[in-house]
Amino acid sequence: MPRFALIIEYHGAPFAGWQRQKDQPSVQESVERALRRLDASVGAIAAAGRTDAGVHAARQVAHVDLAREWEPFRLSEALNWHLKPEPVAIVQAVRVPDTFHARFSAVERRYLYRVVERRAPLVHENGLAWRVGRRLDVEAMRAGAAHLLGRHDFTTFRSSICQADSPVKTLDALEIEAEERGLAGREIRFRLRARSFLHNQVRSFVGTLERVGAGGWPPERVRDALAARDRAACGPVAPPDGLSLVGVGYPPEFGLPD
Question: According to its UniProt record, which residues of this chain constitute the active site (predicted)?
Answer without folding.
Answer: 52 (nucleophile)
